Amino acid sequence: MKKLLTIIVGILALCLLLVCGEYALNHRGNTGGHRVLTIYNWGDYIDPALISKFEKRTGYKVDYETFDSNESMLTKLRQGGTNYDLVIPSEYTVQRMKKEGLVARLDHQKLPNLRYIDRQFLNRSFDRGNEYSVPYFWGTLGIIYNDQKINAGAVQHWEQLWSPRLKNNVMLIDSARDVFAIALITQHQSVNTKDFTKLKRAQGHLKALTPNVKAIVADEMKMYMEQDEAAIGVTYSGDAREMMDVNHHLHYVVPSEGSNIWFDNMVIPKRAQNKAAAYAFINFMLAPANAAQNARYVGYATPNWAAKKRLSKKITSNQAFYPPQKTMRHLHTYHDLPLKTLGEYNDLFLEFKMFAK
Amino acid sequence: MMRQKTLFIVPYLLWIVLFVLAPLILIFYQSLYNINGQFTLDNYTTYLTSGVYLKMTFNSVWYAFLITLVTLVISYPTAYVLNRLHNKQFWLLLVILPTWINLLLKTYAFIGLFSRTGSINQFLRFVGLGSHQLLFTDASFMFVAAYIEIPFMVLPIFNSLAEINPSLINASKDLGASQWQTFTKVIWPLSMPGVKAGIQAVFIPSLSLFMITRLIGGNRVITLGTAIEEHFLTTQNWGMGSTIGVVLIIAMFIVMFATGEAKQKGGHTR
To answer: Which residues of A carry a binding-site annotation for spermidine?
Structure first.
């Protein structure tokens, strides 16, 4: 009898513990008062030394949390448990957050260091006038190849991936938007098309690529390319940088006919508790010395012209990571598509993956 | 007395309702909403009319079947031999030991073995067979999946073999049955419950494998697990993801039912 009661009480206590745990996790941010800045960023996406520097200089205490996808970040933000003061989403997510009213309008008066951002990275289509967001890093989608297996000339354009000579040599990134972007660009269509027939045609083109596709992978591509498992990979510039640091036979190309350009941006959520600290942090990160230090640590391309000047010529003259103007003009951002269209992209992508046999 | 009996049921009921029934009902409830949050049966219509999902289901069942078959073929003799060894508990422990290591770690270890520069290819080159593409093939996917599932098959078969009364086997031999006859007429039928439990423990998880399909199969093997992951993480179409989840649950019931009923038949007719 006693045993039984213990079990019942045990189960109920477990439930209570779970509820309390959830509450505690969700409301952690609120307890610190006005001296705490809660940041929500991608994993390994800031030089930790800068956080300590910021804390020392301003006296704010930084509470730093990380996420691994825009979607999981959005879900957490929507639930509204934790009140983040600064979040760093990608551009199409900024668009969605704007639509859902999750972000606060920025007061440019409080951001004097915004003048260090290169004009070509301001006023982009996902946030006209940068009313809600400040670019943090940017990058591209491109081709990484191993010079021991492939001539540079054989991978300058997307269409070359279809060459029969590359049979079973290409790795693709496991992302519907990116893989469809390749096919859409080769067919001279917009990477944001909502037209189902155009998508269907792009899918047909992709199916013709299947003999060349070795695998469709995510983060593991870094490891595979570093270990010479495949000759060619379609990936993001940031990941490419990491791979090239490990394996010196790897090179990265952004096809000049067009590709995706992405931005990660600093935004202040509407429910932020400590906007003053968030503004201070944005200004701090925009200061040329800090932005340069961060760019050296993270390795992505900085939108900060003053910071770029402080980086070594070897980095900034690398056309793979700071493409020439001619290419820049042909780079497009992804727009936030309606969920229905997004579903179509993904369903067609799933079908393509199944066809990849 | 009666009061005590009902009280004994309470913790069990609480557990079942909170952690088994409630999640199942939530999944089913979620599957009835489309992406705009409207109540509809559309998800099921989409599933049943789209060739993609049906083909994916077929793929999943086919691969799960193959994995179960391979696992069974390897595990039964293993369990049989284990049972006849001295220190069998120790050897069994060695078979179970790999389950203490995280699934992802084991998968990554296989990437190291199978890759172009991995140990297996190094060995192949050493003996003059040249290097081969091992990763991203059906064979490597099946190999890793079977490797991971084998302990779950060995354990129930081992237990049911251990439970067989040795005097039954001795009696069979005394009555003039050959080794083979003893095996087919006595040991195999008596170990059937273990085999069925093993099939249930392997087939059902194999239906929804998804990390291995990407890491080892390079997404060239697509199962329902891949689709569920995509719907929950990328397209945010939780309704469709739940619908596929419901399909998997139904598949699970079918497997349970099939293996469960066969057991009774076997028990009565033999």
So the answer is: 92
